[in-house]
């Protein structure tokens, strides 16, 4: 089946599934709240968000040396609290990486900080940011995935990179923990939080 035909079929199936779930889902994408006892800290509501999408499964940013070809390279996070932290982060080439870099460099370090995350996604899917929680020793974030519009050209077998930068109006001195939940559907609660390892998500 050609990619465009498969794409439309997937979109139709996703739409039908969303309608079926609507009657039993108690969550709303725009009003999502973590249920009590979710094991998270305080939800952060004051932040600025920038999301970019690279056209290939390559890192948008990295800390230290750039991963060599063949090494796991797409995924992970970086918390930037100072100019010294920023000096240890490099950004790739191209518009998406440059856009993310400009946003991160515009942060007023000293009174603000930035949290960066990236993850590979299948080309026919996109990621939606659902929230961030502040804990004593770090942060936890939540994302979900959903099918892109049917008129977006894509190949079901290819992958791209989605990266986000979250700017906070505060600075954490000692961030040692970072976790994320990645739900395969935006119509249900996110999966349990796990350590940020940068694995693949459909």
UniProtKB/TrEMBL annotation:
Region (Disordered): 23-45, 177-202
Domain of life from the UniProt record: Archaea
Protein's name in the database: Lipoprotein
Organism encoding this protein: Halobacterium hubeiense
Phylogenetic classification of the source organism: Archaea, Methanobacteriati, Methanobacteriota, Stenosarchaea group, Halobacteria
């Amino acid at each position: 089946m050609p990619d465009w035909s498969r794409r439309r079929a997937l979109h139709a199936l996703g739409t039908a599934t969303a309608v079926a779930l609507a009657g039993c889902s108690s969550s709303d994408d725009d009003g999502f709240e973590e249920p009590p006892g979710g094991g998270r800290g305080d939800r952060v509501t004051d932040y600025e968000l920038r999301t970019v999408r690279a056209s290939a499964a390559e890192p948008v940013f990295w800390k230290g040396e750039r991963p060599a070809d063949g090494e796991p390279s797409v995924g992970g996070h970086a918390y930037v609290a100072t100019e010294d932290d920023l000096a240890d982060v490099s950004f790739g080439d191209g518009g998406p990486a440059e856009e993310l870099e400009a946003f991160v460099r515009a942060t007023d370090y000293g009174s603000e900080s930035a949290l960066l995350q990236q993850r590979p996604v299948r080309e026919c899917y996109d990621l939606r940011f659902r929230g961030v929680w502040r804990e004593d020793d770090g942060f936890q974030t939540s994302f979900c995935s959903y099918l892109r519009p049917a008129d977006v050209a894509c190949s079901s077998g290819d992958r791209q990179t989605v990266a986000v930068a979250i700017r906070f109006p505060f600075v954490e001195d000692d961030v040692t923990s970072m976790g994320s939940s990645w739900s395969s559907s935006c119509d249900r609660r996110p999966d349990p939080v796990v350590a940020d390892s940068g694995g693949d998500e459909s």
